[in-house]
Specification:
The chain is mainly alpha-helical. The protein contains seven helices and no strands. The longest helix has 44 residues.
């Protein structure tokens, strides 16, 4: 039963989310915490691990959550559930893409989806921020140092530094900070 539930929940996430893994984060977080598959803290850790490993974020997240919840079978069901809708949609779209690629309606729909994707990514960022930072004491030393690390990493990304450098530097600073505190 848990296998079917994992498949179905991740199928819905894959079916109704546009914009990739980051846009899926709010739905993944809501689904897995409501089902008590993982905690908010584990969600943040899974995001970090998913970002640090090769592959799409949503696929990595679904695999980790499925594995944590129901072992290898759970990992397979959750991963297949999140990937299957995209696979089917791409097959259907590829058959008629050339016919509609210049349609003003299709272009308008895609332009309308872009702000929604940005909003979903922002929602995931805000939700993760609540878990990472103690919002009751925003100006505590730990929170200020964490904020400087996040802003510095964001600046490096804005300056188009290679992601591996940003990830490596963030991990190094995080380890040093963890040893000092």
């Amino acid at each position: 039963m848990i296998y079917l539930r994992l498949f179905w929940e991740f199928f819905k996430i894959g079916m109704f989310t546009f914009g990739g893994g980051y846009a899926m984060l709010p739905l993944i977080q809501q689904t897995v915490t409501q089902n008590h598959w993982i905690t908010e803290k584990q969600m943040i850790d899974f995001i970090a691990v998913s970002e640090s490993t090769p592959g799409p974020l949503a696929v990595n997240m679904s695999t980790y959550i499925g594995m944590r919840t129901a072992g290898v079978g759970g990992a397979l069901c959750a991963t297949f559930g999140v990937v299957f809708p995209s696979f089917v949609i791409i097959l259907l779209i590829s058959g008629c893409y050339h016919k509609f690629q210049n349609s003003s309606i299709i272009k308008s729909v895609m332009a309308g989806l872009q702000p929604a994707v940005v909003a979903l990514i922002a929602a995931a960022l805000l939700s993760a921020s609540r878990s990472v930072f103690d919002m009751g004491d925003l100006f505590a030393e730990d929170n200020l140092i964490s904020a400087v690390i996040v802003l510095s990493a964001g600046f490096l990304c804005y300056k188009k530094k290679p992601p591996i450098i940003v990830i490596g530097m963030s991990a190094l600073v995080g380890m040093l900070f963890g040893m000092l505190v």
